[in-house]
Design a protein that fits this description.
Layout: H1 5-12, H2 28-39
């Protein structure tokens, strides 16, 4: 995951709550690059003092109906 350290620092260390969203597609590679460090973080990232981080990965209707972690590697 070390391909873009400045972007990763911005996302995981300096980021704040999103208040805008983009229609730009997110590739499976990008989702995996985000999923791995967030899933294995100690302590787990939170969205507040009592709630765990929630991740939503919407895929097109023709995508497999499986949990992201169950999707086969690229």
């Amino acid at each position: 995951m070390g391909e873009h350290p400045a972007v990763q620092d911005l996302l995981f260390l300096e980021a704040r709550t999103a208040d805008t969203f983009s229609d730009d597609p997110v590739m499976d590679e990008q989702m995996r690059a985000i999923h791995e460090p967030v899933s294995t973080a100690e302590p787990p990232p939170t969205t507040g003092p009592t709630r765990s981080l929630r991740k939503l990965a919407p895929f097109p209707p023709d995508a497999e109906d499986t949990h992201f972690a169950e999707r086969p590697p690229l």
